[in-house]
Design a protein that fits this description.
It is built from 2 helices and 4 strands; from the N terminus they run E-H-E-E-H-E. With about 100 residues, the chain is α+β, with helices and mostly antiparallel strands. It has one domain. The protein is elongated and about 40 Å long.
Length: about 100
């Protein structure tokens, strides 16, 4: 019988999606992102904040609390890429010391 190892999934406590240089004109996308992420992470808090730096804005969508597994995190990143086409997106996470087999 062949040995198969399951890929461990990392569990995150927070996940942030940073949309750079938005010019503040991403309210519709931000609203849709919050709605989609709340469905994807029903036990987490999802918030959005836009900060201005001169003429450009930096929009951060945060997911906090609950258990954010790496599979759903990858799905969330795909959602963000689809909603914010043409914008640069970076991410940040805080890991919980739990691995799930």
């Amino acid at each position: 019988m062949p040995y198969t190892r399951l890929q461990p999934r990392i569990i995150y406590h927070t996940a942030g999606f940073h949309v750079l240089n938005t010019d503040g004109d991403v309210k519709r996308q931000s609203r849709l992102a919050v709605q989609d992420l709340r469905q994807l992470f029903p036990n987490s808090s999802v918030s959005v904040e836009t900060t201005w730096h001169g003429d450009t804005a930096h929009t951060v969508i945060d997911v906090q609390g609950g258990f954010i597994d790496s599979d759903r995190y990858a799905t969330a990143f795909e959602i963000m890429k689809d909603l914010f086409v043409g914008y640069s997106i970076s991410t940040s996470t805080t890991e919980l010391p739990i691995l799930v087999e």
